[in-house]
Amino acid sequence: MKILVCISVVSDTTSKITLDSSNTRINSEGLTYIVGPYDDYALSRAIEIKEQTQAELVVLHVGTADSEALIRKCLALGADSAVRIDSSAIDSYQVAQEIIQYAQDKSFDLIMMGKEAIDYNSGIVHALVAHGLGYNHFSPVMHLDFDAGKLTLEIETDLGKSKVSSTLPAVLGCQEPIAEWKIPSMRGIMTARTKEITVIAPTKVNFESQISAQVIETERLQKMIPVENAESLIDMLKSENLI
């Protein structure tokens, strides 16, 4: 069995966040970075499955060289090897395409990642990867049992919780309480120094980039419509040429 865990590298929640000069991206100066907390849950459960099944566990990250210390931490926790695709993470589509290009000929049985990264919170990378590879897809997964090639999952839905079963291969977006976060042991830290981090050049992926995104607060209409006059909302929208 082969498991791929995809991790994001995000700013620590205690960091003060500011925007750069373009006003569209986070200013990285002075920030402390961590592995995405939801990805930590995915990795922790994947390590447990690896210990249960003797599976091969690979960690994948789309990012630059300054993320390798955090990748090395994943190796110290119990991953067998790691891959870094040498490209900044630009958007969800680009990240998903890089994962797809890497994984499509590797025959991974299970691909796990957090339900979302905590910086932009798009929460769609796992769905895009599953679609691109033709794998089963579930998110957010709160509980995962693995037995004889079959997954038994507890997922969060709009109505609460649901239990489902699935065959492999599958892509899962994970969240607590799927596993408890793990702390690397001294032996794991020493062993991680000799484990391989393979660096791969990014593919040439066509993606859309954001041109601008502005909300001018002073130009908002800020009109309140009483519930009993809700039908007048349509007339108002028409008069303001909004529909």
UniProtKB/TrEMBL annotation:
<dbReference type="InterPro" id="IPR012255">
    <property type="entry name" value="ETF_b"/>
</dbReference>
<feature type="domain" description="Electron transfer flavoprotein alpha/beta-subunit N-terminal">
    <location>
        <begin position="23"/>
        <end position="209"/>
    </location>
</feature>
<dbReference type="InterPro" id="IPR014730">
    <property type="entry name" value="ETF_a/b_N"/>
</dbReference>
<keyword id="KW-0813">Transport</keyword>
<dbReference type="InterPro" id="IPR014729">
    <property type="entry name" value="Rossmann-like_a/b/a_fold"/>
</dbReference>
<protein>
    <submittedName>
        <fullName>Electron transfer flavoprotein subunit beta/FixA family protein</fullName>
    </submittedName>
</protein>
<keyword id="KW-0249">Electron transport</keyword>
<dbReference type="Pfam" id="PF01012">
    <property type="entry name" value="ETF"/>
</dbReference>
